[in-house]
């Protein structure tokens, strides 16, 4: 398997570090060869992450950067010796694990290709120095919560730097002096890519650095990287890439880093059809991460012209247009209604439970649905006679098949 990986990638050489589309299609096709199967679904288990870190430490430089509120180690992997320094981190929010899986897949790809002396990898690591923090907020990650153990949102702590995890991150920024930061997050299923009924599978942001959202050279550099990722992704998930809102908040990490002159790209790994495990989205996140690193190798030679901002703004802006399920033709108190349902996520043991909650009861829904169900043939309308917004939606059975129910991943 390792030799096969080498053969597939050996046709490409990094000339000015620009890889052809076929390289990314090959990565996608061979994904299972380097995917970290230990990590699956939404809740990443602490013992499996520790085992994976130990395994990778035999091949990659690993460092304990500091500790979380509950004294868990914040780990970084350090690769390459090139002049372009890139800092990558994931899971500032503990319930956003998709990009963490993609990061570990990238580290595993590096390990496998190091073992077979892949010239492409050698050339890449001569161009860049990478410091990668797979899990910045481990207390929250292993409990599947957004905030850290002090109930603080780390992505609103950039200016104060009041939390141990934030202090670790900005201590690294000060000592490592990155040319580029990649701030990797996850996005809820509610987001569309623009006004169309298309889920935002990946979204990106070049954050504002001032209240008036002026376009600086730093923002343009981040935009240029986003444009490259978008152009690549359109070959895999056309129209499914969004642009996150750039409202300014100096407490947000990307806004703060742009304000001090460090290009920073926000990643938001979102939803793909029926992919509540985020196993499909992890692949596209991996490809985006790889593309960002590849393009950044030319950071000093990026041509910034008016097309950069124009192309960036042509990426459709995220809108909150989706619910998870729309149930049509449901009789509630002898009236036919459309019911909008969103799944509420909560950890339960080693799983994440998805509970269907009613968010809208209307004659005509104001949302698009990832799934649309016609309830006209159900025989148990009586179960829904007192249904109201905020309720957990009862199981809907049609012809002995249950279509809406609580599930866990």
From TrEMBL:
GO BP term, pick one = proteolysis
Q: Give the GO molecular function terms.
A: metallocarboxypeptidase activity; zinc ion binding
Domain named Peptidase M14 is located at 36-296
Which InterPro entries does this chain map to? Answer: Peptidase_M14
What is the native source organism of this protein? Answer: Psychroflexus salarius
What family does the entry list?
Belongs to the peptidase M14 family.
Which key words tag this protein in UniProt?
Carboxypeptidase, Hydrolase, Protease
Give the highest taxon in the source lineage.
Answer: Bacteria
Can you say what this protein is called? Zinc carboxypeptidase
């Amino acid at each position: 398997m390792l030799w096969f990986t080498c053969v597939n990638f050996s046709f490409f050489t990094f000339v000015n570090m620009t890889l052809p589309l076929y390289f990314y299609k090959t990565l996608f096709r061979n994904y299972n060869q380097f995917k970290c199967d230990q990590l699956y679904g939404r809740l990443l288990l602490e013992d499996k992450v520790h085992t994976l870190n130990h395994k990778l430490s035999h091949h990659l430089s690993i460092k304990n950067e500091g500790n979380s509120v509950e004294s868990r180690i914040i780990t970084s992997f350090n690769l390459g010796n090139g002049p372009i320094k890139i800092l990558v981190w994931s899971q500032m929010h503990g319930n956003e694990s998709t990009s963490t899986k993609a990061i570990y897949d990238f580290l595993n790809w590096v390990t496998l290709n190091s073992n077979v002396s892949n010239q492409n990898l050698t050339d890449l690591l001569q161009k860049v120095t990478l410091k990668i923090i797979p899990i910045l907020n481990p207390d929250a990650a292993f409990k599947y919560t957004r905030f850290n153990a002090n109930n603080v949102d780390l992505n609103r702590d950039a200016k104060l730097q009041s939390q141990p995890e934030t202090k670790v991150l900005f201590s690294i920024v000060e000592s490592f002096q990155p040319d580029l930061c990649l701030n990797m997050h996850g996005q809820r299923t509610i987001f569309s890519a623009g006004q169309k009924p298309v889920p935002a599978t990946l979204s990106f942001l070049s954050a504002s650095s001032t209240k008036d959202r002026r376009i600086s050279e730093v923002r343009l550099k981040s935009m240029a990287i986003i444009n490259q990722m978008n152009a690549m992704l359109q070959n895999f998930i056309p129209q499914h890439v969004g642009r996150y809102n750039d409202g300014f908040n100096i407490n947000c990490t990307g806004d703060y880093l742009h304000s001090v002159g460090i290009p920073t790209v926000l990643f938001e790994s979102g939803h793909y059809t029926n992919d509540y495990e985020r196993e499909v989205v992890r692949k596209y996140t991996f490809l985006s991460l790889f593309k960002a690193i590849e393009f950044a190798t030319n950071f000093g030679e990026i041509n910034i012209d008016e097309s950069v901002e124009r192309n960036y703004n042509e990426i459709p802006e995220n809108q909150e247009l989706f619910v998870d399920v729309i149930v049509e033709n449901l009789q509630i108190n002898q009236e036919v209604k459309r019911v909008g349902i969103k799944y509420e996520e909560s950890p339960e043991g080693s799983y994440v439970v998805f509970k269907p909650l009613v968010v809208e009861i209307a004659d005509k829904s104001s949302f698009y649905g990832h799934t649309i169900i016609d309830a006209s043939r159900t025989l148990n309308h009586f179960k829904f006679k007192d249904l109201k917004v905020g309720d957990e939606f009862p199981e809907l059975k049609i012809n002995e098949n249950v279509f809406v129910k609580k599930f866990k991943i």
